[in-house]
Amino acid sequence: MIPIDDSPIVRDGKTLILAMDHGLEHGPVDFEDVPEKLDPSTVFETATHDAVTAMAVQKGIAEGYYPSYEDDVNLLLKVNGTSNLWMGEYDSAVNCSVDYAAEIGADAIGFTLYGGSNHEVEMAEEFRDVQEDAREHDLPVVMWSYPRGQGLKNDTKPEVISYATRLGLELGADIAKVKYPGSSDAMEHACKAAGDMKVVMSGGSKTSDYEFLSTVEAAVNAGATGLAVGRNVWQRENPTQILDALEKVIYDEETADAALEATE
Amino acid sequence: MIPIDDSPIVRDGKTLILAMDHGLEHGPVDFEDVPEKLDPSTVFETATHDAVTAMAVQKGIAEGYYPSYEDDVNLLLKVNGTSNLWMGEYDSAVNCSVDYAAEIGADAIGFTLYGGSNHEVEMAEEFRDVQEDAREHDLPVVMWSYPRGQGLKNDTKPEVISYATRLGLELGADIAKVKYPGSSDAMEHACKAAGDMKVVMSGGSKTSDYEFLSTVEAAVNAGATGLAVGRNVWQRENPTQILDALEKVIYDEETADAALEATE
Amino acid sequence: MIPIDDSPIVRDGKTLILAMDHGLEHGPVDFEDVPEKLDPSTVFETATHDAVTAMAVQKGIAEGYYPSYEDDVNLLLKVNGTSNLWMGEYDSAVNCSVDYAAEIGADAIGFTLYGGSNHEVEMAEEFRDVQEDAREHDLPVVMWSYPRGQGLKNDTKPEVISYATRLGLELGADIAKVKYPGSSDAMEHACKAAGDMKVVMSGGSKTSDYEFLSTVEAAVNAGATGLAVGRNVWQRENPTQILDALEKVIYDEETADAALEATE
Amino acid sequence: MIPIDDSPIVRDGKTLILAMDHGLEHGPVDFEDVPEKLDPSTVFETATHDAVTAMAVQKGIAEGYYPSYEDDVNLLLKVNGTSNLWMGEYDSAVNCSVDYAAEIGADAIGFTLYGGSNHEVEMAEEFRDVQEDAREHDLPVVMWSYPRGQGLKNDTKPEVISYATRLGLELGADIAKVKYPGSSDAMEHACKAAGDMKVVMSGGSKTSDYEFLSTVEAAVNAGATGLAVGRNVWQRENPTQILDALEKVIYDEETADAALEATE
Amino acid sequence: MIPIDDSPIVRDGKTLILAMDHGLEHGPVDFEDVPEKLDPSTVFETATHDAVTAMAVQKGIAEGYYPSYEDDVNLLLKVNGTSNLWMGEYDSAVNCSVDYAAEIGADAIGFTLYGGSNHEVEMAEEFRDVQEDAREHDLPVVMWSYPRGQGLKNDTKPEVISYATRLGLELGADIAKVKYPGSSDAMEHACKAAGDMKVVMSGGSKTSDYEFLSTVEAAVNAGATGLAVGRNVWQRENPTQILDALEKVIYDEETADAALEATE
Fold first, then answer.
1. Multiple choice CATH, A15-263, 3.20.20.70, 3.90.1200.10, 3.40.630.30, 3.30.2010.10
2. Of residues B65, B146, B180, B251, which has the active-site annotation?
3. How many beta-carbon contacts under 8 Å exist across A and B?
4. Quick one: what percent of chain E has pLDDT higher than 90?
5. Residue C109: in which H helix or E strand, if any?
């Protein structure tokens, strides 16, 4: 953890990451109801919204589309990831070097760590290299901290999520992205376990506007510094509207109710 | 994905790759009916046809034969591959470094990725290195994107082929080579899943002229930017004739019927 | 082993390491009764005590907190470690390079070796690199020498602890941190097995003041050059008081009784 | 494959390699009847025969004995090999770097590839490095192409030997050394499968003069460019005599009968 | 093998290596009857005897003690080794780089190879690097050539020991250290299998003066160039006396009887 409040991916101490690596991690199935979103440009357009401090994509999409958006979008290059065709123990291939990410214009680096996987040791060592390379380029590092694998059944239990944020702090991340542990108290504990490191909530699969916004509200109140979200934005009919609402909840710390009312 | 329309392996936005790595991947059995084709010169001769934008071979054949054809043929060096004596889970040895491929005169790099194999993570990391080395040399990268391995029975199902093209896009290929998913609609979806990245259909085992050309026609109509073909050209008695027909289907977007008629 | 008596982590030939890597190794569970200690600053404050010659933390905590304490605390960067979510055979990821540790300002390097683990050979080779890199930076190396793994049931048997200190000596550590082998005689043998290399006792889980101090007294009398302690200091209500007492036992070689009396 | 007709290991387009790596691959058992041949000097003396274009040995023997023979013998450094104490799946350790081989004075490099072994992929990647390093030093590469391992029972079947030569061509060898496939026709097919790459027959275990020479004659007539032989030369009482005969069969393309008659 | 007769570890063509890596390989158990020998200085003192041409230790002991003895003792740095807490197939961690060994002042390098182990291939490749690095520093290499592992029950059978010395020769060692194969004839064969490379007998566990010396006498008569010995020297009450006797047997080629008589 180094000071990143002056980094482009932070706005007023908060962060809203729009993620679009689902084509790799989940495959075309995530686009079934929104086939037009197979075109990454559509999501980059959405990412030009002021609320979005960074767009998270894999190398190939960054190479192909970021040149058209580099003035309007901050790039968070997610440097590892694996298809769900993979049948082995949880693991994630490092698909992009930090040097190349920097060359493409990345403003930050993203990395998934599966704590508890039989590949945890190997992934932690890959994280070491990625984190230290990122330091060379003065790039913040966001850890997708997702404990899972042999022996970990329910990966959103409070103690697991607090362990997840702590792993981010101990190993040198600047922001940890974790799943919501189910309650405001548990989220608060997870944020405390992170010390001064920032924690963002993972958006998860698509839910109703209210349910989604009130979870974000609870997370922010519990100390989260924002959100990393994909499907709950770009699978919606009107991504701009939900981003307007998220902007109010995250940056203005308004309630979900107030934010919804103001943006409907 | 980077812009490759000005690359030598693209002609009018289209691509026709003549592949001849069967001696490695399949062994002498593919030459049983055409033993004279064991001599790679014969196929290089065929590759001088205007319709062919690149010839795909392994390092050894490039070293030995390309010097005689470098004025007339563009070289796509396939940098990985494995014999079918291999009994293990799907994998592919990296047989050539990109630096050496460039030294030999390669105009593009080819790489097989078996998504879903127990070696997927390792292969994706090898692809990372190959792709980034290719960027250093300004060489386009063609991914043979072939999901297969434990848990993947039918590897030409539409959702598998769309995942295959998407893997190419996400991981940074410039062209993905995939099997025909069985219908024009499925091919169209696979091309959409690739965003702006080019998709070429894999030629597969030898079929009749009409069957072959009409599949190519369907693929091109569905958005494919061309074909990568081996046996359906060089196992034929008259490779020039089928290339004449392919030229019409791919570059002039004529029907299979018209192309056949014009070239018979 | 090289001469380290002039190193900042040694005071009058003795060493007291305050360790706080429990957030990684044990997880939030170790903070259940002292949630305020989730904030690493609180332990760094404790480490400013004169008795403490070094504070042992992982990379992320060093990066985030050491800049505020570098004038008052010596940094021992623990370069490997693994979460207890890990279900595999005992192993430890190398989370920090020695070069980066030096850049952060480390005064010494810490490394865990699980002798007897099925990863022993691999860990010993990682230790080689770490130790030789540390020599380049003139940094002392502390080995957490913890035999455990397949076939090792009771890892505090006298012969195991003597083997543990000897491994430190043979492989090139400057200090070995080992568990107390249960008796003063066994500790004396373990110190003899270390030759001229320093041995520090591991603090272990929290016990009563008297029990803890008298074990330290026994260890020091047996030849140990000090202590590496975490929970027995920072899980206490008054860490300063126990450090006052430890200072007397370790540096002044007073009895536990005398030290307790003087500090209560 | 690059042009090697001007290389010292080729004479009039032909090659006769005298191999003596049996001490590593087979152990002292191969010397039971000829214990004096345990002294490598004896075989180097034999290698000074004009018929021999290269002597193939491992690093240690090259280091120790080649300095005395460098004016009279061409050195083929066999850079991998494994003892038959090895009980694992077919594999071969890379015992010498190409740089060091060149420093010792090697005129060519030898490498074993076990196609079909569960180590095929790994060996092919080691071959890549060796082959490309050899190119840096302008050294020809001879592949001992020996398909064997799980699933390959009879490794001299015609289709296996043709696959073996083809592997050499595709992967970038300059000469492939293969076992005789049992018939002249099969050998001819194997040579055709190699394209313009040279093929040498493997000498195998000791047989009668006539049987041995007539197999060589058949191989040469079928297109082989020579022989790599060990036991059939140095296990003989009079190695010079058999080399005289081989010279006639290989370079003068005489029959086995004529060669035997002329040299007896 | 390179000429090493002028190396400091050779005296009149003979070698007597005093080894003290038992603290790593066997653990404190080897010191049970001689606890004072846990202090490596005691053995370094012994190594100042004129008969000793080199002292073999691991990195840590070399670092810590050799500076006091560098004028009187030649250092053989044993760069690999593993504790007997290790329960896996025979293997040995490379604990010291050759560069660092040279920096510490090593006069020679020692390396264990377990031929026949499932780690043989990996160890042979580690040996390659060590041997070639040693050549850069002009340091002789001693191979502890110990066939053992899956399928090798009795590792002192004559054919195994002859294979062991041959492995040393083929792979590029300058001296092979092997167990005594049980008879003078077998030892003679093992020395012949080594060609011009030197062979030293391994001392083994402690035996009577006469038994020990007469085995050494037999080995020297059979062609061995000396001895590598640990316990049979430093576990004795009077190491100097046995070294006096060994000096006569090894360098003066006296009988065990004569040597014993002269030194008692």
1. 3.20.20.70
2. B146
3. 114
4. 95
5. strand C108-113
Type and span of the H or E element at A229: strand A226-229
CB contact under 8 A, D193 and B38: yes
Q: Are strands E198-202 and E175-178 parallel, antiparallel or unpaired?
A: parallel
Judge whether residue A1 has pLDDT over 80: yes
Element (H, E) at D97: none
Residue spans per domain, chain A: 15-263
pLDDT at residue E264, rounded to an integer: 79
| Tokens linked to D48 | 């000074």
Considering only CA atoms, which of A95, A155, A167 is closest in space to residue C93?
A: A167
Give the rounded distance of the alpha carbon of C130 from its chain centre.
Answer: 17
Check CB contact of A87 with chain B, cutoff 8 Å.
yes
pLDDT grade, residue C245 (50/70/90)? very high
Half-sphere exposure of A11 (CA within 13 A, CB side): 17
Q: Are E187 and E156 in contact (CB under 8 A)?
A: no
Catalytic annotation present for C65: no
Catalytic: E198?
Answer: no
Whether A172 sits inside 8 A of C88 (CB atoms) is: no
> Does residue B248 sit at the A interface (CB-CB below 8 Å)?
no
Please tell me what DSSP assigns to residue C203. -
Q: Is E105 left (phi over 0), alpha (psi -120 to 50) or beta?
A: left
* Cβ atoms of residues A168 and A197 within 8 Å: yes
Where is C27: in which H helix or E strand? none
Instruction: Give percent above pLDDT 70 in chain C.
Output: 100
pLDDT tens-digit profile of C45-62? 999 999 999 999 999 999
Residue D150: band (very low, low, confident or very high) from pLDDT cuts 50, 70, 90: confident
Please pick, among E146, E179, E198, E248, the residue that the annotation labels catalytic: E146
Using one digit for the tens of pLDDT, what is the confidence trace for B180-233?
A: 999 999 999 999 999 999 999 999 888 999 999 999 999 999 999 999 999 999
Residue B93: strand pairing partners: B81
User: Cα separation of E258 and E245, whole Å?
Assistant: 9
DSSP 3-state of D171: helix
State the pTM of this model: 0.97
Contacts of D125 in chain B (CB under 8 A): 93-95
